[in-house]
Amino acid sequence: MTQISDAKKGILTEEMKHVAKIEGVSEDFILRSVANGTIVIPSNVNRDIEAAGIGAGLRTKVNATVGTSTDIVNFDEEVLKAQIAIDHGADCLMELSIGGDLDVIRNRVLDMSPLPVGSVPVYQAAIESIREHGSVIYMDEDDLFNTIEKQAKDGIDFMAVHSSINIETLTRLKRQGRVTGLVSRGGSFMSGWIVENEKENPLYSNFDYVLEIAKEHDVVLSLANGMRAGSIADSTDRAQIQELIILGELIDRSRDAGVQCMIEGPGHIPINEIPTNVMIQKKMCSNAPFYMLGPIVCDVAPGYDHIVSAIGAASSAKAGADFICYVTPAEHLALPSPEDVKEGVIATRIGAYAGDLASGQIDGSQDLAMAEARKRLDWEAQYGCAMFPEAARAKRDERPPEEEDTCTMCGNYCAVKIVNQWLDQSDSELIK
């Protein structure tokens, strides 16, 4: 049975109990939300993991991607990246390799990760077709479904499935035109296949088969946003909205079949359009959890796109997005290094936290504790309140002050210390 089918029957699973406990919400809330599809719990029946809940009423989750490229194939480094992402607070991983033995690297990440792990099955199906036949256009339809089934059996907890790239959405894209066209790798693979074979996308025409596989293994379908914009100039256009209409229909079919589902969202989008995108997605997709890719809120900061994305993450979480895919400093430039992965997770976690704080999803008690510790000049307490305590401690120790209760920013003229000494302890009648 799947989490959603159990929930519809009123069965509270161990995964639901765990999510309720770590989120600080009632078990009944989780049960009802999983039953109606507004929360998903990626947890393949073939793996034993620490379940995470994604959806309305929960903390915004952060995903980190790892995976080889055709230029750099280093399995040990990808596993290291996965561990770094885990150590710095990622909630989920996605294994997106396109170079080397794809089965080996996927299973290595699955074996080491206590977190839910996602994938994009069309990558493997397309790449194996290219290796064997010379082009993705020769990919056999059965290869797609066999790859989905293989990865589900391996234990993949959620899958980006490109079912909404179809003849209708491609026609809309062709009529409109774009500056940057398609930037989704899976979307480009399926688009090439559709155009060259003059056939409908089998992931759309045979979507029921996808649902059968997903249901058997309780894989969450992350319905992919293949028409997402690759530049600010193309944001929130007709092709994207056309795909969203298709996605909404697929959500209904997934829930009816007892399959958990979430919707992927746009990549490049200006801040002012983020609330609109979240609202439209929630409205058209029956409040399914929204998985935002980044988002990138301006196109002109390569090398610092983790900062750009943190701004997008904060805006998205504030607007009601449920799941954020990190962006690293290497975005648009290179395969991320382990250090890039670290910086990407940190930036996105901060953005998601800021958005949750603004929306009231988190109560601000940690921020209040930090404020009180700063008032007391209690540095150990400040480290204890910090999202990344080791980094905070290391930064202060890097340039230690003469007096232990201050830092080298203000030294002897620390405003907090002065106020503590002269204002808060004053007996003056003038300021009483």
* Average pLDDT rating: 95
Say how many strands there are: 10
Unreliable residue runs? none
- What is the ordering of alpha helices and beta strands? HHHEEEHEHEHHEHHHHEHEHEHEHHHHH
Major β-sheet strand ordering: 3-4-5-6-7-8-9-10
The end-to-end span amounts to 67 Å
β content, as a range? 5-15%
Report the total helices: 19
Q: Outline, from the CA principal axes?
A: globular
Structural category: alpha/beta
Q: What's the gyration radius in Å?
A: 23 Å
Q: Please give the share of residues in helix.
A: 40-55%
Major β-sheet annotation: 8 strands, parallel, barrel
Structural commentary:
The structure is a single chain. The chain has helices at residues 3-8, 14-23, 27-36, 75-87, 102-112, 121-133, 141-154, 167-176, 185-197, 202-205, 207-217, 238-256, 274-284, 305-319, 338-359, 365-375, 379-385, 389-398, 415-422, and strands at 39-40, 54-55, 61-66, 92-95, 117-119, 158-161, 220-223, 261-264, 290-293, 323-325. It is an alpha/beta fold. The strands form two sheets. The chain has an eight-stranded parallel barrel with strand order 3-4-5-6-7-8-9-10, surrounded by six helices. A two-stranded antiparallel sheet has the order 1-2. The termini are far apart. Helix 2 packs across helix 3 (27-36) and helix 13 (274-284) packs across helix 14 (305-319). 50% of the residues lie in helices and 8% in strands. The longest helix is centred in the last third of the chain and has 22 residues, at 338-359. The protein is globular and about 85 Å long. It contains 19 helices and ten strands. The mean pLDDT is 95.
